[in-house]
Amino acid sequence: MKSDTLILVGLGAPSPETPRGCEIFLREFLGDAHVLPAPRLLRKFLAKRISKKRSAAYSEKIAGFRRRGGRAFFEVMDSLRGRLKERLGAAGVFYGSTFGEKSVESAVKEAVDSGFGKSAVFILCHPQACGATTLPALEKVRKAAKILRPGSYKIVDSYCENPAYISALARAIKKTESADILMSFHSVMTRQIKTYDYPAQCRATLSALQGLLPEKRLHLTWQSAMNFGKWLEPKTEDFALGLLRGGQRNAAVACPGFFYECVETELEINSDLRRKFLEAGGEKFEYVPCFGDSEAQVEI
Fold it and tell me: Which end of the chain, N or C, is more open, meaning fewer C-beta atoms within 10 Å of its C-beta?
């Protein structure tokens, strides 16, 4: 389907990044039934309690991310939008967030008010579709798209095997010296694997990559699990330290489920895991950066 409009849909981020701003964002995020599957009243209670309890720590993590040069979600999206507009010429490019400020609805209205929106393609910025991220985004997109002509839009909810995406990942990973590459995806609770077979999509990405990288050993691992419920395993940290115990002193980590650098990639992997790996006796730890607003992301 040809389109005059491209609308990118990301998860979103706290704004402002203060404890109060983080609390508001977390409450909205955790209050979604796809994110926290529980009866409505219990979900609202837990969302309020958890967001209040974790907001200060989350705000501090974001501050730490900024101190390491991390860029804000909205900055990355603005830059990516500009680069795509240059590439696409006459087409309109807009973006919205599933949670927080700059909603999907506002992006659609902006497109229509700008004279675009006759036909639109919504790209959900999650390479692998997952119920906790993709389903909330789909609901926001379908609600917002009601102001468009029926049948005038389509949604790309996954690009886990997109050739441009796989080729870009392969080029980035080839630059590493390590033979062992940990493909670290965001973990989810196993009971959330319903509408989308998220682990299968992650395996599909890894399989496609392995075909282009026969010289590398790619390992599927999971990060960012919480301390409750049953989550996908093995944990990235446990696997990396297990390599050390097995005599492997070098390792590299890529986070192909994240399209831009964030707290989970820069702090959890490139800072905390790097430190733990080297302190435990590792000799070389390599991190494969996310694409963000790079030329590789524009090509995808």
Answer: N
Q: Which position has the token pair 């026969």?
A: 214
Q: Using CA of residue 173, residue 176, residue 182, residue 186, what is the dihedral sign?
A: negative
Cis peptide before 16, with omega less than 30 degrees from 0? yes
pLDDT tens by residue, 233-278: 999 999 999 999 999 999 999 999 999 999 999 999 999 999 999 9
- Rounded to whole angstroms, the Cα distance separating 129 from 192 reads 12
Q: Is the dihedral of CA 240, 243, 245, 250 positive or negative?
A: negative
Question: What pTM was estimated for this model as a whole?
Answer: 0.93
Q: How far is the C-alpha of 263 from the C-alpha of 97, rounded, in Å?
A: 17
DSSP one-letter code for 214: T
Please enumerate, as own/partner, the contacts of 148-154 that have beta carbons within 8 Å and a separation of 24 or more.
Answer: 148/108, 148/112, 148/117, 148/120, 149/118, 152/118, 152/119, 152/120, 153/3, 153/119, 153/120, 153/121, 153/122, 154/1, 154/3, 154/120, 154/121, 154/122
Rounded CA-CA distance 293/83 in Å is: 8
In terms of C-beta density within 10 A (0-12 exposed, 13-18 middle, 19 or more buried), how is residue 189 classed? middle
| Residues 39, 296: Cα–Cα separation, whole Å | 42
- Other beta carbons within 10 angstroms of residue 131's beta carbon come to 21
Whole-angstrom distance, CA of residue 7 vs CA of residue 152: 13
Q: Yes or no: say if 180 and 217 are a contact pair by the CB < 8 Å rule.
A: yes
DSSP assignment string, 94-123 = EEEESSSSSBHHHHHHHHHHTT--SSEEEE
CB atoms within 10 A of CB 3: 19
pLDDT tens for 42-63 read 999 999 999 999 999 999 999 9
